[in-house]
Amino acid sequence: MFSGITSKRSATLVAVAALAATVGLTGCSVDASKVKPDTKVFQYKGKTLKLTTHEVATKVVAGDRKDIKVTRWFDSAAGTEHLKWELKGDTLDIDAGCSGIAVCDAKFQVDVPKDLTVIKDGKKADLKGKS
């Protein structure tokens, strides 16, 4: 009879502890748009680029360039960071985030030549011109 009550109390304590940890981290707000961005340039001669974003906010911009320029804004206050931007063959793989009890924010901009076809996460990208 008491084991059921003990299990419920343990589950409640775990839930309260998780909630307290989450509430405690809400004061650690992060905003990637407020940090200095990092950039990386890739030489690319192909006609079609496959872009994998891992669901990170990514804007693709077409312009007068012959290479691919990736700009990353990333900010974190907690968690284990995982950052990636690499070009292998015709695939540009970008990712930024964190895991664990995590507080982070990320976004990318990928500047490409205007005659390049970009397949972003399996769908043809709607390329924006430079503003």
Automatic annotation (TrEMBL):
Keywords from the named record: Lipoprotein, Signal
Record's protein name: Lipoprotein
Signal peptide (residue range): 1-20
